[in-house]
Amino acid sequence: MGTVTAAEEARAVEQARARLTEAGVWDVEGDVAALADRFLGGRRPERSLARFEAAVTERCARIPLGHITGSVTFDGLELLVGSGVFVPREESTPLVEWAAGEKTLPHGGRVLDLCSGVGALGLALSARRGDAEVVCVERDDTAVQYLRRNAARHADVLGSVQVRAADLTEPDCLAAHRGVTDLVVANPPYVAPHIRLLPEWADHQPSAALYSGEDGLDLIRRIAVLAAEVLRPDGRLALEHDRAQPDAVQQTLADGPFTDISTFADTAGEPRITVARFTGRGETS
Ligand SMILES: C[S@@+](CC[C@H](N)C(=O)[O-])C[C@H]1O[C@@H](n2cnc3c(N)ncnc32)[C@H](O)[C@@H]1O
């Protein structure tokens, strides 16, 4: 095996740029940089060059970048991801910032992260608020495995984190948390089936992580019911949803025992995070 010269690497990077542009990915420079960082250089450059080109081929097939590199950074935490799990989106971080505020979450508060996937919201919140007790609830076996690994990897910077495998559509799935929870956060599936998604989502992420009924809101409605069961009076709820859904989500919450309902933007400026305060059982706003 001969060594790879800097000129050969530069040529491979240039070809990658052209191939990714042709494939229609939206952040060619970011993807090239991430793939070069992960696969080029190192002690066996010949193999690295071949691996880099294979990785570019995968990205041209619109496999999500995180599935190719094996990790994604969310709110400063490097989270392990892979085929079969939803890749956390950095755009969700304003939800974590809101949730971590002292006005939202009292000292030592109890948090449920519902539909936690590989753990983005719950682990990031725990890293910011080590005093909180966080329980992450996820149904999918593969996601739960990644979630446990991510919690273990970052144990040194996290507070109390428990991982529970559970299906939120099951009756009494959160019975143990009834009336004692200070904050519920959730980025559940919410895509309506008529929405056309980019191939990274439509073809390569689990459909159970994306879709939820005819209008996409089945699980959000279920979470509103569950939140009213588990929250203590004055407890808070934060939901991520589609940019077309703020009115529907706000109405769902206003129809239940929630008040102080508002929607704010994710980091892309889209109105995708709705928060509310639980008034208490039997009361409506
Ligand atoms: C959009 S992904 C979000 C994951 C994570 N919250 C994040 O922000 O990266 C939705 C997650 O909900 C999980 N999920 C879907 N239906 C569920 C159910 N009935 N009970 C529990 N989890 C569910 C999926 O497996 C998936 O991991």
UniProtKB/TrEMBL annotation:
GO biological process, one term: methylation
All copies of domain Methyltransferase small, residue ranges: 107-192
CDD domains noted in UniProt: AdoMet_MTases
Molecular function as annotated in GO: N-methyltransferase activity; nucleic acid binding; S-adenosylmethionine-dependent methyltransferase activity
Organism domain of life: Bacteria
InterPro entries, alphabetized: DNA_methylase_N6_adenine_CS, N5-glutamine_MTase, SAM-dependent_MTases_sf, Small_mtfrase_dom
Full protein name: Methyltransferase small domain-containing protein
Organism field: Streptomyces nanshensis
